[in-house]
Amino acid sequence: MRNRPFPRIGVSVLAAVLALGACGTRSEETGATTTLKIGFDAPTTGQLSAVGLGMQHSAEMAVKEANAKNLVPGVKFELVPKDDQATPSIGQQNASAFVADQDVVGVVGAYNSSVSQSMQPTTASANLLQISGANTNPTLTRGAKHKDAPKRPYKNYFRTVTTDAKEAPAVARYAYNELKLKEVATVNDGKVYGLGVIEEFTHEFEKLGGKIVVKQQISDKDTDYSAVVSNIKSSSAQALMYGGEYPQAGPLAKQLKAAGKDIPLLGNDAVYDDEFIALAGDAAEGAYVVTAAEPIGNSQVQQKFVTDYKAASHKEPYGIFGPYVYDATMAIINSVAAVAKAGDGKLPEKPELRAKVTEAAQNVAFDGLTGKIAFDEFGDNKNYSVTMNTVKDGKWSVVGPVG
């Protein structure tokens, strides 16, 4: 296997890196004098800790690669992880801490769209670059009127992953056209992500001619879903579309089947996790869930990532979002490289550095772990893919790309 420093970068960024110095020279050998920090925010404790830690490990791999290959000569990068506990107010506090540390030039995160929503005003106030590898709610980049009159709320916010505006309609089309479902129940968890998923799904499903026969909401703190289950059981729903995350999706599916309503669960990427199958048991069988990604492992670069991740013996898997977090981290590093090139190898003073790095991110382009990374005028990745997956014989199985 060819030892590549990191996913092949595009012409503009490659030129920047080559102009700054030859890749492959370890930073400790060149005597790096400047340490720049990259903040990381995700839930690393609680129900979603496995996802958050998998994301953190992926970001750490990107930083390690950048330092080992001396991608920005004279600069050593350090990841500063913070746990937001999937709570918006804590995410905002973390954002304030990142802003207060002048060595922080970018932030990777958050996992939850609601948390990023709370972080955005704070990072924007300091021109601090924020790139998420997991947020999928379209309003974060295109505003509340994203369907009819999209307007970018914050120019410092970007993401490498696609949005629910692509994912949820794909679920609706697959359900209606391929699974031949005409009546569906929807349940959301009341959070920004879950509400957005159901909104997008409902719009597309009804446009196709389908009918939402039950509309329910739960809390991510609930464990007993008997009232919701009763309403769905007495309905004509042929499937349940869930807007939320796997810790609730699994028990909900299990309780629904136990009540005698054996219908498939549909969902977006936050349901896609092995723990969903563990929590749902037999009720997971036949679930259909999309991911805002293609399965990695096909290319040489992806195989190296998988091999290196396994070699590190992390308890938590990198999951769906790990590779996108890796690319988000690399996007920040490549932005710093572009600023250094523009300054003939020198970086501006730190109060100005953040603004310059954020500005550079808009034009960064490279071949990342998940494909081409380049941002449109809203801060969304121009390249996106949506893959349908199903649970078959107790395991996730790829159905294929859907549009």
Brief overview, please?
With 403 residues, this protein is an alpha/beta fold.
CATH architecture of the largest domain: 3-Layer(aba) Sandwich
What is the C-level CATH assignment of the largest domain?
Alpha Beta
What class would the helix/strand composition place it in? alpha/beta
Helix content: 40-55%
Segments where pLDDT lies below 50 for 5+ residues? 1-30
Q: How big a fraction of the residues is strand?
A: 15-25%
How many structural domains? 2
Q: What is the CATH topology classification name of the largest domain?
A: Rossmann fold
- How are the strands of the biggest sheet laid out side by side? 7-6-8-9-10-13-14
Radius of gyration: 21 Å
Mean pLDDT: 91
C-alpha end-to-end distance:
33 Å
With helices defined by DSSP (H or I, 4 residues minimum), what is the helix count?
14
Shape: elongated
H/E element sequence: HHEHEHEHEHEHEHEHEHEHEHHHEEEE
Number of strands: 14
Taking the sheet with the most strands, its summary is: 7 strands, mixed
CATH homologous superfamily identity of the largest domain: Response regulator
Structure notes:
By secondary structure, the protein is an alpha/beta fold. The chain folds into two domains: 11-162 and 295-374, 3-Layer(aba) Sandwich (Rossmann fold), CATH 3.40.50; 165-291, Rossmann fold (3-Layer(aba) Sandwich), CATH 3.40.50.2300. The protein is built from 14 helices and 14 strands. It has helices at 11-20, 27-30, 49-68, 88-100, 113-125, 139-142, 164-178, 192-208, 226-233, 246-258, 274-280, 300-311, 322-342, 350-361; strands at 34-42, 75-83, 104-108, 129-132, 157-159, 183-188, 211-217, 240-243, 265-267, 288-291, 365-368, 371-374, 387-392, 395-401. Strand 11 and strand 12 form a beta hairpin. Helix 1 (11-20) packs across helix 13.
